[in-house]
Amino acid sequence: MPVRVTYNSPVPEGKPFTVAQLRTINFGKLVERDPQEAAKLLEAGEKDGFFYLDLTTPASKGLWKDYTACLEVLKKWFDTPLEEKTQYAYGSDVQGYKPIGTQTGATEKSKDGFETLRIAQTGLAWQNQPLPAAVLDQSTLFNDFIDKTRYHVIQLLSSFSDAMGLEGDDRFERKHPDNRPSHTSMTFHRYNKLGARDVSNVGHNKHTDISSIAFLFAQQWGLQVPSTTSENSWDYVRTQPGFAICNVGDSLRFLSGFRLRSVLHRVVPTVEMEQTHRYSVAYFTRPVDGTTFKDSEGRIISIQDWFEKKFDIYRASHEEQRKNTMLTGGIEDAKARARIHLREEIQI
Fold first, then answer.
1. Closest Cα partner for 37 from 28, 47, 48, 50?
2. pLDDT reported for residue 338
3. Region 204-214: what's the mean pLDDT?
4. Angle, nearest 10°, between helix axes 139-164 and 63-78?
5. pLDDT of residue 231
6. How far apart are CA 114 and CA 62, in angstroms?
7. Helix (H, G, I), strand (E, B), or coil: what is residue 135?
8. Where are the chain's structural domains?
9. How many H-runs (helices) and E-runs (strands) does the chain carry?
10. d(CA 96, CA 347)
11. How far apart are CA 65 and CA 61, in angstroms?
12. Phi-psi region of 245 (alpha: psi -120 to 50; beta: other; left: phi over 0)
């Protein structure tokens, strides 16, 4: 990644902190099939794994506005009593409610500090696992938001294919057609403020994403990626209104023959969260069911198996997570995981 920058702002830690300098991709130029912008995207995918996507262009069709409108609906829903929300806890990893504390947290022996509402790609129409009325009453808005986000992701996949010279069935977008089932979902996260959660619930543990591309909308601090210039330290990812934060996930890394880079990341509590909840919305694009690839341990595995095994390891203990490469997608080998664990036993 480009050079780190140190900030003296009191946000997010109340002390100087470093921020990752990520490349910014112009979505309008990708739609126009600009080869230079596609090459810039490829460079970001190969070197950083994370990048900003500019949604302020007319080509984005008002996506940011749809995001803010959907977020306002979910903010009110997250404020409803827990008993109401758990009616939608189906035990599914693509549809329904996930309460706080079902996965590991960002510090040793902690549990996660976020609750979510997941909407499967076609989940607004599901009858067996219905979504809350607050969402269904705004189904046109939510469908538009999901469809527009998907449009952006398919453009990204197509641009990666162009830049890598892929043809036919090898093109990445061909692994993500609209007319076949997948584990793709839109996920709304709320990281509860300090007064509304147990202190043993801490952020989101480090991991790589299952997805091909994770398309993140966020307006608050908390997301971190490993520093490339200082061993065993983390840089914050700065949010920008009108810009999505995108990252390569395991599936695209594997489909690209490990050419594209999925990156560890985590979410940690900030000073801001002493007073307010933290919200983020992520569209996790996954290949269609039946897609296979070679994973981080050299196995030929289907996307369904990788998805299920990865979520199982998300829910495992920190000790269990260190026994294989699943959580971090092979980014950390066993020796590195053990070494990092010894150095990460600190309070966040």
1. 28
2. 45
3. 97
4. 130
5. 79
6. 28
7. helix
8. 20-343
9. 10, 16
10. 32
11. 9
12. beta
Q: Are 250 and 210 in contact (CB under 8 A)?
A: yes
Quote the CATH superfamily of domain 20-343: B-lactam Antibiotic, Isopenicillin N Synthase; Chain (2.60.120.330)
Strands (E), 30-74: 50-54
Taking the CA atoms of residue 339, residue 233, residue 49 and residue 23 in that order, the dihedral angle to the nearest 10 degrees is -160
pTM of the model: 0.92
- pLDDT mean across residues, the chain: 91
Query: What is the predicted pLDDT for the residue at 333?
Result: 62
Look up residue 320 and give its amino acid. Answer: E
Length of the chain equals 348
The kind and range of the H/E element at 314 are helix 303-315
**Residues 207/248, Cβ–Cβ less than 8 Å:** no
Place of tokens 């403020």: 193
Structure tokens belonging to residue 187: 């996920």
The half-sphere exposure of 292 on its side-chain side, counting CA atoms within 13 A, is 4
User: In the 8-state DSSP scheme, what is residue 113?
Assistant: -
Give me the sign of the Cα torsion angle 131, 132, 138, 144.
negative
| SS3 label, residue 127 | coil
Give tens-digit pLDDT for 33-68: 999 999 999 999 999 999 999 999 999 999 999 999
Q: What span, in angstroms and rounded, lies between the C-alpha atoms of 36 and 233?
A: 33
